Amino acid sequence: MAYKIGGSCTGCDACTRFCPVFAISGEKWKRHEINTLRCVSCGVCGRICSNGAISDSGGTTCTPLRRSLWPEPHVDVNVCSACGICVQDCTSRALSISPPKQRGDIRVYAELSDPGKCTGCGICEKHCPLEAIIMVSHSKELPQ
């Protein structure tokens, strides 16, 4: 189910800039709308909205979350095949395939190469055919 924008929207455009699937539109300083056919319910809009104008599919108002606490992808390098699906699907361009460690090395994998660009949407996790990616919040410990 798609997220919704309520009446307290000021049209600041923050949600529009961060939406990884470009599902939000509207004129600056006017209430925005979410295209329910495009929305993947990732919650990025709710984390970025400082006005409490976003509600999830259950109708609960989303609480803004400091960017430093947003989830990030953790790649299990022993499972990742470097297929590139996550890199291709990452609209923020936060992921890349690692370079070989040395000449002749064929063991490469996906990695979070630019954490500052990551929106924590989880599309990489959802699309990984090998389930090599899990989204981890900074408040949680990484799996061993």
List the main descriptive attributes of the protein structure presented here.
single chain, 144 residues, alpha+beta, Alpha-Beta Plaits, 2 domains, two-stranded antiparallel sheet, two-stranded antiparallel ribbon, 4 helices, 8 strands, disordered C terminus
Question: Can you describe what's shown?
Answer:
The structure is a single chain. This protein has two domains: 1-65, Alpha-Beta Plaits (2-Layer Sandwich); 70-136, Alpha-Beta Plaits (2-Layer Sandwich), CATH 3.30.70. By secondary structure, it is an alpha+beta fold. The protein has helices spanning 14-18, 44-48, 85-89, 123-127; strands at residues 4-5, 24-25, 33-34, 54-55, 72-75, 95-97, 110-112, 133-136. It is elongated and about 55 Å long. 27% of the residues are buried. Residues 140-144 have low confidence and may be disordered. The strands form four sheets. A two-stranded antiparallel sheet has the order 1-4. Strands 2-3 form a two-stranded antiparallel sheet.
N to C succession of SSEs = EHEEHEEHEEHE
CATH class of the largest domain: Alpha Beta
- Principal-axis shape equals elongated
Give Rg in angstroms.
17 Å
Widest sheet: strand order?
A: 1-4
Which stretches are poorly predicted, pLDDT < 50 over at least 5 residues?
Answer: 140-144
Total DSSP helices: 4
What is CATH's topology name of the largest domain?
Alpha-Beta Plaits
Percent range for β-strand residues: 15-25%
Q: How many β-strand stretches? A: 8
Helix fraction?
A: 10-25%
Total domain modules? 2
Please give the alpha-carbon distance between the first and last residues.
33 Å
CATH architecture group name of the largest domain: 2-Layer Sandwich
The overall average pLDDT, rounded, is 93
Largest sheet: 2 strands, antiparallel
